[in-house]
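pasting input
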Amino acid sequence: GAVVSQHPSRVICKSGTSVKIECRSLDFQATTMFWYRQFPKKSLMLMATSNEGSKATYEQGVEKDKFLINHASLTLSTLTVTSAHPEDSSFYICSAFRTGGNTGELFFGEGSRLTVL
Amino acid sequence: AQSVTQLGSHVSVSEGALVLLRCNYSSSVPPYLFWYVQYPNQGLQLLLKYTSAATLVKGINGFEAEFKKSETSFHLTKPSAHMSDAAEYFCAVYHSGTYKYIFGTGTRLKVLA
């Protein structure tokens, strides 16, 4: 089956620094990827839709300057948390959309746990 | 607008007992519905999906779900729970216009020995 790889799986950083998380679709091309944020014991909150070759579409309330998304190729999207603060600590999950059939299929990465000290 | 509602944020069952996780949807068009499972500190794994073919959908790990239009429901069931089924389960509806998947709030399943 299709695999989406997310890296790093865990990252600890100091407040004020920037952190980049990568999301790769390993065996299919994904023109659309999604970034989610999951708070402890909560559902997934869609942050943004990442479109290859164009600007990401952010959900309401998500700061685009704080969470920079780049989808430079058909297999890679990156999320950069800029000037991270402790409140940015969370579990970030990416997903890649593979077209086909009625709905296509969404494949999820393993998630990245960010801890900002 | 499309949405899903999961009733019960926590469900506990004994090992070997029936698992029933509830999901109701709201959609103005025929919905495409999904169930995902999430184990601790991991991403989501697709259990099964309904895409307007058979109303009873069989998935992995012995799970199945039945699409009931009259009840706007897509409940997830498994005849006999295993300890390994303990996880978080998410129901989702697919929005074809945007490729977005709208997730429910999740149900944490606990399996008691």
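fyi The two ends of chain B are 41 Å apart (CA to CA).
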